[in-house]
Amino acid sequence: MAAAIAAVMLVTAPPLAIAAAARGTLPGDPIAFLLVMVTDVVFFGLFAGAGIYCRHRPETHKRFMLLATLSLLPPAVSRWPIADAHPALVTVPMLLLLATAPLNDLRRHRRPHPVSLWGGIAYLASIPVRFAVAATPAWHHLARWLIR
User: Fold this and answer.
1) pLDDT value at position 73?
2) 98 class by beta-carbon count within 10 Å (0-12 exposed, 13-18 middle, 19+ buried)
3) What is the distance between the alpha carbons of residues 143 and 127, in angstroms, rounded to a whole number?
């Protein structure tokens, strides 16, 4: 059932993001923000898919599913009243929540689980990259083509 819900999300989220960008209802530059949304969906799909694939290895499965869940958190945090005035604060809860799994692993097992460590690093590293790519003329050209 969870796999079906994840599949529905992966099929419906990109068209919804494109429609929101076309209407101009995304914050800031809607074309640039579209890449942020699509990247979150891609990370969700990768993490959820890996989690479903590893469902018979509980320690790996639960870490992938946590990362999948956290990849969908930024839209919710961005609706907090303080995020309107300070959009950069959206990353603070993400940093704290992404750090909890590796820190818990260190406490319990004396080493972080590779999924928690590398998955969290990959997600965090994507944040500045996606904003940099979103500002490029190539992305704007592709996004305008998508929302036409």
Assistant:
1) 86
2) buried
3) 18
What is the per-residue pLDDT for 26?
Answer: 75
Residue 13 and residue 7: Cα distance in Å, rounded? Answer: 10
Could you tell me the pTM of the whole model? 0.87
Rounded CA separation 65/52 (Å) = 8
The SS3 of residue 148 is coil
pLDDT at 25: 80
List C-alpha distances in Å: 75 to 57, 78, 90, 91, 135: 30, 5, 9, 11, 20
Closest CA to 93 of 109, 79, 107: 79
Determine contact, residues 113/63, Cβ cutoff 8 Å. yes
What letter represents residue 61's amino acid? H
pLDDT, one tens digit per residue, over 76-88 is: 787 788 877 777 7
Q: For the chain, which residues make up each domain, given as ranges?
A: 2-77+90-147
CB atoms within 10 A of CB 107: 8
